[in-house]
Amino acid sequence: MAIEKTSSKLTAPEAQWDARQPDNIDYLRPTAMRFLIQTLPNVTYFCQSANIPEMSLGVAIQATPYIDLPHPGDKLNFGELTIKFMVQETMADYIELYNWLIGLGFPDDRAQYASYVASHNHLPSSGKNEAGQYSDASLLVLGSNNIPLTQITFYNCFPISLSGLEFDISNASTDYFQAQAVFKFQKYFVETVDI
User: What are phi and psi of 72, to 5 degrees?
Assistant: First the structure.
């Protein structure tokens, strides 16, 4: 069985610079974002940074007598969503995440889980399980005029860690607390926002 070779060379019209020039040549700014999560209104307001997690596709290897041939796999793997937020003086935003983790982990008894889920099951979720344990989130990427251009929607998020806070009376400067939270989620989609 003969293997057909295909050419990956560009034709003359395809190789011309004018035919390949993008419509928009503005660059993405790292400060042009807004993070929204339904369960955490205070965290949403004070969020300072959020990431688009890495995404990877598994690889299937076909063994041959000569070299093994790689093929695209059939399962995607997503990294973790990490956010940083300024902690309010009343710690209301920190407590929102603390209560969510306590509700999911129920360190004292199962009633903590049932109570948390019952108090949050009015929120929409894309999952079939109890909606109170998950929350959808969105990262809006803003253009040069601070208008949303792209929306990354994370489905069925739940927190897996919340950073600690270290108080230190010997520190002479007034640095405000930032906390970090890490979330797992089912999947995310990237969509262009219609203006």
Answer: -60, 140
Q: What is the pLDDT of residue 117?
A: 84
pTM over 0.85: no
Q: How far apart are CA 157 and CA 134, in angstroms?
A: 5
Length of the chain: 195
The tokens 């109890």 sit on which residue?
130
Inter-axis angle of helices 111-120 and 92-105, nearest 10:
130
Torsion of CA 163, 93, 156, 101, to 10 degrees: 50
CB contact set of 102 (below 8 Å; sequence gap of 6+): 112, 116
Q: Is residue 79 packed enough to be buried (19+ CB in 10 Å), middle (13-18) or exposed (0-12)?
A: middle
Name the amino acid, one letter, at 103. Answer: G
CA-CA-CA-CA torsion sign (20, 28, 50, 34): negative
Question: Alpha-carbon distance 160 to 143, whole Å?
Answer: 31
In the three-class reduction of DSSP (H, G, I as helix; E, B as strand; rest coil), residue 182 is classed as: strand
Q: What average pLDDT score do residues 137-156 get?
A: 93
Output the CA angle 140-99-83, nearest 5 degrees: 30
Which tokens sit at 133?
A: 């344990």
Q: Is the pLDDT of residue 172 over 70?
A: yes
Q: For residues 75 and 82, is the Cβ–Cβ distance under 8 A? A: no
Q: Residue 144 and residue 180: Cα distance in Å, rounded?
A: 27
pLDDT on residue 12 = 64
